[in-house]
Amino acid sequence: MENSESNNAPLDFIRAEITEDIKNNINDGRVHTRFPPEPNGRLHIGHAKAFCLNFSIAEEFGGKCNLRFDDTNPVKEEQEHVDAIMEDIKWVGWDWEDRLYFASDYFQQMYDWAVQLIKDGKAYVCDLTAEETREYRGTLTKPGKLSPYHNRSVEENLDLFERMKSGEFPDGARCLKAKIDMASPNINMRDPVMYRILHASHHRSGDKWCLYPMYDWAHGLEDSIEGITHSLCSLEFENHRPLYDWFLDQLDVHHPKQREFARLNLTYTVMSKRKLLKLVDGGFVSGWDDPRMPTISGLRRRGYSPASIRNFVKKIGIAKTDSLIDLALLEHCLRDDLNETSPRVMAVINPLKVIIDNYPDGQVEELDAINNPQDPDAGTRKVPFTKELYIEQDDFMEDAPKKFFRLSVGREVRLRYAYFVTCTGIVKDANGRITEIHCTYDPATKGGDAPDGRKVKGTLHWVSAAESLKAQVRLYENLFTNETPENTENDQDFTANINPDSLKISENCFVEKSLADTKPGDRYQFERLGYFCTDPDSSKDKLVFNRTVGLRDTWVKMQKQE
RNA sequence: UGGGGUAUAGUGUAACGGCAGCACGACAGACUCUGAAUCUGUUUGUCUAGGUUCGAAUCCUAGUACCCCAGCCA
Fold it and tell me: Is the distance between the Cβ of A175 and the closest atom of strand B smaller than 7 Å?
């Protein structure tokens, strides 16, 4: 980073160390990171923290960041996830250029290095079953004991390992272990498994291998091969760092630094692969891209912008403390960006018919409306005004308190960009429900300003009854009712905390005509309601919008206080 | 109860022996053709107990709490 602004900005502990490394000319001052997802699920906002960290560090320090799929377990991984993951990272705004790598491409090199360790007497083939291995490993407080196969000759190990590779043995019959220390207080160092036999077809290497490397053995090698300088991962791998270092030291190859940071936790959200999968498979949501999911594809469909996600990640910082970030911060970043970038439009979700009694029948006036007050370059558009309109049901109250700035019989309000109107009466059906309200308008207030300078307290959004489009609007709330969904009563599953009202569909909505050609993914602010985006289910015949997030609403807050 | 890690406002995150700051939230007000945005102000914090020091969030000692590790998962 060369600008002075960033010199003043406090650095997180990782950037501070990298700055120091550059100063000390470690790796010739080179910075090279990587994001290594396993293609066994979709990326979520927690992964965004990790990949934004890796890509932005590379960018800031003039280095590079690789995308590498850590595909060492063929039984859990799929090409479909590989494609989705690449799409997600690109969408958030990062580019790995020509540096797309797969751990599976390094299998031969890893195998050769394993042979080298065997020759050096640092690895052996073990015939213990998985269960026996567990017994030999000992416990947290008791040391393990040496495998009976620990002292096999190099020749025998070489022969057996070769035959493991050639497919002679069934799954689980033998494995290759590193010879380290069965008494180590760090359980990861008690002769960890390097290879297991898996007669499974790999999504990239097919049936070439029936021997697959374990994470601890593979990961450092992958980093080393790619010339990574800083291998950033989450906290639970801190216990594995001695092993990461041990393998690279034994091989005497390029040795990146592994550094660990706390993963993201968000209130009202689950982040584990297992739980996300359960939501999808259990039919609790419509899929990985359900707008209530914290997946990148879910956020995208919900209407989040890439900038809002990047900014959020920047704001939460990087540290080693376990933390739980308030969803409100994510939503703040969302609104912050959408406020600047979203065109305004008028839409009515719960329509209430308004008849302007003194407005000419059949007349249509095209009024000027500002597209984005935050952005003068966004220009203006025309909205049609007619005798019959819709306003929001919440914007009318029969017995209105003084603090209610909206419409009530005898009160005057402004219809945005249109006229001042005064309510003269209401019509109810047999059940006492208000079916329509009657108003008069003041022709002198056209455009929304009164020439006599009189003020109104309230401005309402509206839509012409005849000159508008019908739409479906999907209103989302938190998927969970509990800040920490895994906290349940009576040992229930986290799904017990699912919010039954997380999705409400409003079929009878009306939007401005200017939305006729909207495309999936288009984002808008529906004035006074919130930010919305067009869903992929939307078509010219049936418009469908998702509520991304509501506007801050001090009126409902005031009501809740009472 | 072995080992590894972490403790700063409600939530995050700075301060690297020298005035505990910033963001989000909450609260109050100003402004407003969005009860939005914007602006202003207020509130709340160094895990505990000792020690070193002119001076400690920071160094030392002893505690406490929480997280991670006993997959042939990553």
Answer: yes
pTM metric for this prediction: 0.96
User: Hey, what amino acid is at A224?
Assistant: S
Could you tell me whether strands A380-385 and A347-348 are parallel, antiparallel, or unpaired per DSSP bridges? unpaired
Told to judge if A273 belongs to the known catalytic residues of this protein, a careful annotator would answer yes
Report CA torsion sign: A154, A155, A160, A165: positive
Residue A295 to residue A495: CA distance in whole angstroms: 17
A234 touches strand B (CB under 7 A): no
Strand B contact with A237 (CB < 7 A): yes
Six-digit token string for A304: 């989040």
Give strand letter and number of the nucleotide nearest A212 (CA to C1'): B72
pLDDT by position in tens, chain A (length 562): 223 333 456 899 999 999 999 999 999 999 999 999 999 999 999 999 999 999 999 999 999 999 999 999 999 888 999 999 999 999 999 999 999 999 999 999 999 999 999 999 999 999 999 999 999 999 999 999 999 999 999 999 999 999 999 999 999 999 999 999 999 999 999 999 999 999 999 999 999 999 999 999 999 999 999 999 999 999 999 999 999 999 999 999 999 999 999 999 999 999 999 999 999 999 999 999 999 999 999 999 999 999 999 999 999 999 999 999 999 999 999 999 999 999 999 999 999 999 999 999 999 999 999 999 999 999 999 999 999 999 999 999 999 999 999 999 999 999 999 999 999 999 999 999 999 999 999 999 999 999 999 999 999 999 999 999 999 999 999 999 999 999 988 878 999 999 999 999 999 999 999 999 999 999 999 999 999 999 999 999 999 999 999 999 999 999 888 7
The protein footprint on chain B, as nucleotides within 7 A of a CB, is: 1-8, 10-16, 21, 23-27, 33-38, 66-74
Q: Considering only residues 422-461 of chain A, list those whose CB is below 7 Å from strand B.
A: 447-449, 455, 458-459, 461
Respond yes or no: is residue A263 known to be catalytic.
yes
Instruction: Give helix A45-60 / helix A79-92 axis angle, nearest 10°.
Output: 60
